[in-house]
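Try this one yourself first.
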């Protein structure tokens, strides 16, 4: 079985003291041994302090974005080399907020350049894909997912792909309180797995973990996680409260029978 993976995307939240309080709550509440993988993805300014915090917690560190360039005159950007320096294992790429609401919006080609740069630096991308409400209502969900996967994973080999993480995050469920039904989530994840099979073959596709992201909370997590192609969650707001994040982790463990 693929090892379930729950990651907390803190977005632009938590001052350093608050982040440390949250980590203290996780330190106290996480089961030992922890049968699933858990990551936290702080803001860039908190990566180094959180690197020290995760040393005493069974949690790994991820970043919320990165530049494709190695170094140079890119004011405000952060490179893969810098993320390695902070001991980041993961980086979120192609999040719906990056695609649709922040700055000019990132297209598949830009996201793909970041994916390739992360892989070259031995950082695992969490590649986000998902449709808008308009696209879902128009019956375009599967076509959108197929296009984003093909674009975001261009020139990624089957060997590289086997270690990837894909996050399905329907844009209409991000921060809205709406959540895909378990059936909608499984359908999208199953389609993603099928597309990965077409791209890389069954063995690689079966190894790739696919998270669900979109208003995941303790009270809906288990119903989502019991689906066979849902391998965990990319959690936004609920990852900012230790009790809520722990509730999602516990629900995932229970749903997977671990």
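Now uncover the answer:
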């Amino acid at each position: 079985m693929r090892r379930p993976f729950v990651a907390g995307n803190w977005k632009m939240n938590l001052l350093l003291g608050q982040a440390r309080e949250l980590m203290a709550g996780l330190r106290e509440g996480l089961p030992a041994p922890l049968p699933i993988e858990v990551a936290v993805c702080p803001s860039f300014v908190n990566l180094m302090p959180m690197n020290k915090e995760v040393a005493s917690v069974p949690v790994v560190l991820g970043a919320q974005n990165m530049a494709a360039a190695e170094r140079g005159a890119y004011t405000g950007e952060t490179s893969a080399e810098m993320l390695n320096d902070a001991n980041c294992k993961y980086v979120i790429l192609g999040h719906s907020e990056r695609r649709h609401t922040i700055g000019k919006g990132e297209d598949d080609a830009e996201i793909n350049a970041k994916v390739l740069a992360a892989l070259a630096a031995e950082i695992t991308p969490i590649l986000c894909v998902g449709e808008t409400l308009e696209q879902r209502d128009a019956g375009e969900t599967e076509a959108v997912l197929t296009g984003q996967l093909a674009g975001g994973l261009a020139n990624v080999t089957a060997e590289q792909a086997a270690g990837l993480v894909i996050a399905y995050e329907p844009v209409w469920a991000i921060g809205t309180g709406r959540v895909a039904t378990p059936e909608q989530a499984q359908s999208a994840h199953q389609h993603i797995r099928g597309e990965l099979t077409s791209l890389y073959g069954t063995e690689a596709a079966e190894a790739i973990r696919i998270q669900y992201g979109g208003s995941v909370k303790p009270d809906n997590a288990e119903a989502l996680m019991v689906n066979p192609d849902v391998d965990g969650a990319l959690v936004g707001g609920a990852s900012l409260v230790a009790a809520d994040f722990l509730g999602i982790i516990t629900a995932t463990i229970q749903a997977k029978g671990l």
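Discussion: The domain at 5-255 is CATH 3.20.20.70 (TIM Barrel). Residues 83 and 99 are 21 Å apart (CA to CA).
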